[in-house]
Amino acid sequence: MVLNSVRRLRIFPRGSRRGFAGKSLEIEGIKEIVAVASGKGGVGKSTTAVNLAVSLASKCNLRVGLLDADVYGPSISMMMNLKGKPEVSADNKMIPIESYGVKCMSMGSLVAQGEAIVWRGPMVMKALEQMTRGVQWGALDILLVDMPPGTGDAQISISQRLQLSGAVIVSTPQDVALMDARRGVKMFSQVNVPILGILENMSYFKCPNCSEPYYIFGKGGAQRTADELGMKFLGEIPLETEIRSGCDEGMPIVISKPDSIVSHAYGEASEKVLNTLYELSKQQNLRPEIKL
């Protein structure tokens, strides 16, 4: 049972990674931190992050958080229908806005709608630090991080400053997107973050009249890439109008149409992610520990 596996993820504590100046990379109260990433923009990464987060909360009954780390192009506030700005706790920490059972933090909730964020790297890093450790997340089973697209400074810094349990790579089936997805895999490998699997978005379009699938961006590209790289394939998400409209209206499709094929696909992907986290946890706890 997937849920039982998740509840056991941290029975045996992992070795605590430490980062800059010996600072612990863990965030108090959060068991697992998973990045949702892509090598390039426009592949539906944020849409995937939103629907995975809501699936984990609604279908797996987990305590879930969602961090919008795409500071320059925050979209979680619209997709999750976040209203107002985060309140501040007595200890001067931001309180995440909860929506559909998910605790959310996004730069889109901190700036005026449509305002351009023209910041240099150090300011972005400071903002990300405040949106992670400057937030009163409370007890979470899992925090999903909607990563900025690409493999630059922001992505590397997030990977180095947080104890990521793993990363989910999102790609469309076309070769151009998969080429960039491979770069994302290599980046996470270089910072010792395990890949939990590749999820193929916009896999096909099913004609509403004849139900025949049309593979607009190619067929089976992410599955082949996962096989070549020895990684898990998390499933196919079809190209459907309801996914787009749900994001625009602030109601993810796993909420508006929980029994749809798409919602089931997101649910199955969530379960695969959780099972892989459990497997990684067991493997790490079986490693011999050398004490000097």
Describe it.
- A hairpin with a 2-residue loop joins strand 5 (97-99) and strand 6 (102-106).
- This protein has 10 helices and 12 strands.
- The N and C termini lie far apart (39 Å).
- The chain is of the alpha/beta class and 292 residues long.
- The longest helix is centred in the C-terminal third of the chain and has 26 residues, at 261-286.
- Residues 1-23 have low confidence and may be disordered.
- Helix 2 crosses helix 10 and helix 4 packs parallel to helix 5 (153-161).
- 37% of the residues lie in helices and 18% in strands.
- The strands form 3 sheets. It has an 8-stranded mixed β-sheet with strand order 5-6-2-7-1-8-9-12, sandwiched between helices.
What key attributes describe this structure?
eight-stranded mixed β-sheet, 10 helices, disordered N terminus, alpha/beta, single chain, 292 residues
Number of strands: 12
Amount of helix: 25-40%
Estimate the strand proportion: 15-25%
Q: Helices and strands, in N-to-C order?
A: HEHEHEEEEHEHEHEEEHEHHH
Biggest sheet record: 8 strands, mixed
Model regions low in confidence, pLDDT < 50 over at least 5 residues: 1-23
Distance between termini?
Answer: 39 Å
Q: What would the principal axes of the Cα set say about the shape?
A: globular
Provide the residue-averaged pLDDT. Answer: 84
Enumerate the strands of the largest sheet in spatial order, edge to edge or round the barrel: 5-6-2-7-1-8-9-12
**Secondary structural class:** alpha/beta
Using only C-alpha atoms, the radius of gyration works out to 18 Å
- Number of distinct helices: 10
